[in-house]
């Protein structure tokens, strides 16, 4: 079984490594003002197209998109991603290589710790498989496709954001998304941690349904349902994509809804995230700081507020 490392160790490793020194062992990196430029090794680059930022230890190619979601393979902008793809090795091997380069010993996990890491990995693998099944359901559910299309959500949006449909008989663990459009919730690293289900029709239809249910003594139908034990206050929808653009712009745009984020990203505002509600929690503020946001544009009910750190 491959070794897995705690996220805290990986973050420490990335912070302590000097990306310019590491990359210079493979390619020529030249200082240009406050930044550095290099010939990109991930495409046939003729002029220096790769920008290397030593302040936050990131890289980005302005020609092929390496170091961002715009690239087909090199989607992360950190030093571990560079080592992984320049050497064509696994993520774990690149972590071990970087630790050796900077002289940081690998953590020794106890059997209990390794079991916990393995359990977490298995959970993410399960969520990924379930997400794929939900997405296949959506492709065959015309009512949901029509609703999303009416909201301006394209088929590419559905693929990028892995939207799905819960179906009539989901597993008992996912009963809250039964017969609902499914929005996977990604953590900071892009792993699916939960699902939120939305009714596949508009607010007016939902209002009529709840009036009828009330008169017939039936239960109220909420617009959204989350998985049990999921706390939205610890996450920002879209952060797994937006973090790179937030870091570059030093600015985050915050909206309330899931589809708001998808629409803004489609129109080029890829530093947008959603609180999935009105409140902005302390945990969400910490995520914004982690992504490098120095300024926040808060959009609420048609009003715009500017918040500076």
Write the SSE topology.
Layout: H1 7-16, H2 19-24, E1 29-32, E2 35-38, E3 50-53, E4 58-61, H3 79-87, H4 91-102, H5 111-139, H6 142-150, H7 155-160, E5 164-165, E6 181-186, E7 192-198, H8 203-215, E8 224-226, H9 239-249, E9 251-255, H10 258-266, E10 272-274, H11 282-290, E11 295-300, E12 303-308
Parallel strand pairs: 9-10, 9-11
Antiparallel strand pairs: 1-2, 2-3, 3-4, 5-6, 6-7, 7-8, 11-12
Keywords: DNA replication, DNA-directed RNA polymerase, Metal-binding, Nucleotidyltransferase, Primosome, Transcription, Transferase, Zinc, Zinc-finger
Domain Toprim: 250-309
Pfam family, one: Toprim_2
Can you describe what's shown?
The protein is an alpha+beta fold and 309 residues long. The protein has 3 domains: 7-102, Alpha-Beta Complex (DNA Primase, Chain A), CATH 3.90.580.10; 130-230, DNA primase, catalytic core, N-terminal domain (DNA primase DNAg catalytic core, N-terminal domain); 239-308, Dna Topoisomerase Vi A Subunit, Chain: A, domain 2. It is 40% helix and 17% strand. It has 11 helices and 12 strands. The strands form 3 sheets. The chain has a 4-stranded antiparallel β-sheet. Strand 1 and strand 2 (35-38) form a beta hairpin. The longest helix has 29 residues, at 111-139. The radius of gyration is 22 Å and the shape is globular. The N and C termini lie far apart (44 Å). The mean pLDDT is 90.
């Amino acid at each position: 079984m491959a070794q897995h490392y705690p996220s805290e160790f990986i973050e420490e490793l990335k912070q302590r490594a000097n990306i310019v020194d590491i990359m210079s062992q493979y390619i020529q990196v030249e200082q240009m003002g406050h930044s550095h430029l290099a010939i990109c090794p991930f495409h046939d680059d003729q002029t220096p197209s790769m920008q290397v930022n030593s302040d936050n230890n990131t890289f980005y190619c302005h020609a092929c998109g390496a170091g961002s979601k715009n690239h087909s393979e090199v989607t992360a902008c950190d030093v571990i991603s560079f080592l992984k793809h320049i050497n064509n090795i696994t993520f774990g091997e690149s972590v071990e290589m970087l630790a050796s380069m900077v002289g940081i010993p690998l953590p020794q996990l106890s059997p209990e710790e390794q079991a916990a890491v393995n359990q977490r990995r298995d959970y993410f693998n399960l969520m990924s498989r379930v997400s794929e099944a939900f997405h296949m359901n959506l492709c065959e559910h015309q009512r949901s496709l029509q609703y999303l299309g009416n909201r301006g959500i394209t088929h590419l949006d559905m693929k990028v954001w892995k939207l799905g449909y819960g179906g009539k008989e989901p597993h008992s663990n996912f009963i809250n998304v039964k017969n609902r459009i499914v929005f996977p919730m990604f953590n900071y690293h892009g792993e699916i941690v939960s699902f939120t289900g939305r009714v596949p029709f508009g607010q007016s239809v939902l209002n009529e349904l709840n009036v009828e249910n009330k008169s017939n003594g039936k239960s109220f139908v909420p617009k959204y349902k989350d998985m049990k034990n999921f706390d939205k206050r610890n996450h920002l929808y879209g952060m797994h994509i937006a973090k790179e653009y937030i870091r570059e712009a030093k600015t985050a745009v915050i909206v309330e809804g899931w589809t708001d984020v998808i629409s803004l990203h489609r129109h080029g505002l890829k530093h947008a995230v959603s609180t999935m509600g009105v409140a902005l929690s302390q945990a969400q503020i910490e995520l914004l700081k982690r992504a490098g946001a120095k300024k926040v544009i808060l959009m609420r009910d048609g009003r715009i507020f500017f918040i500076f750190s």
